[in-house]
Amino acid sequence: MELNHIDSHKDLLKAIEKSQRAFCLIYKKGSDQSDCAFNNLSEGISSLDDIDISAVDVMNTKDIHTQYDIKSAPTLIYFENGKYKNVVKGCNSADYYKSLIEESLYSAKMKQNEQTQKRVTVYSTPTCSWCTTLKTHLRKHHIRYSDIDVSQDQAATQAMVNKSGQKGVPQTDINGEMIIGFDKNRINTLLGING
Q1: Of the candidates 154, 135, 158, which has an alpha carbon nearest to the alpha carbon of residue 146?
Q2: Which domains does the chain have, with CATH numbers?
C-alpha cells in the first residue's frame, strides 16, 4: 500500500467517507521531521491493505490542517467512520506506524459466528509503555477493544476519572469494571484468558 496524496479538504472527505478507519499524514516536505514521518509511514504500511492512508503537504494544501486545528507537522490524523478521532504527532518508527494501523484494523474486525465478547475500553496515551504492553496482551489473545487516547480527549479523561477516581493510565473498562494499571491476572480472569 502507498500513501495517497490529497490536494484539498474536499478530496480528503471524499477519500475517507466510506472508510471505517482512515489516516492522513500532515507533513511539510523538506522538513527533517516531516520527511522522517513520511518515509517511516510509507515503510510501515508497505505490507498493509484494506485501509485508506493519505498524505498532505502543507506547502501545497492549505485547507486541511486548519480544519482539524493542526498546528505542527508532521501529524498523523486518525479518522473513524469518516470522523476525526485522534492524532499522533512527530516522527515515529516504521514499526510504530505499522502497529498503530494494524491495531486500528484489528479492533474493527469481528469474525462471523464468534461468541459475544465483553465490552473492553482501554484508556491510554501514545507515550505510555504499560499501555502498549496492555494492548499487545489484548491483541495477542484476540480481544477486541476501543482505545481512547486521554491526552487528546478531555471529555474521555473526565469520564475515566469519574469511573475510577484515578487519572493515571493505563486503565481498562471491562463491562463497567475499571482496572487500573496492567493487572494481568485480573484482566485474564474477567476476559477468560488462559495464560
Answers
A1: 135
A2: 4-99 (3.40.30.10), 110-191 (3.40.30.10)
